Amino acid sequence: MDLTATGSVPERGVAVDVDELRAAVATATTVSTVGGRTHWEVGGAPPEHAVEVSAPGGVTKYDPADLTVVVNAGTTCAELGAVLAAAGQECPLDPRSGRATVGGALAVGLSGHRRLRYGPLRDYVLEVRFVTADGRLVTGGGPTVKNVTGYDLPRLLVGSLGTIGVMVRVILRCQPLAAVAEWTVTDGDPFDVRRRTFRPSCIVWDGHRTHVLLEGVPADVAGERAAIRSEPSPAPIWPDGPHRGRLSVRPGLLPALAPALDGTGVHWLAEVGVGTVHVASDSDTGLARARAIAEGAGGWMLREHGAPALDGFGSARPNPGMTERVRAAFDPTGKLSPGRLGPVRG
Question: For the chain, what is the mean pLDDT?
Answer without folding.
Answer: 87
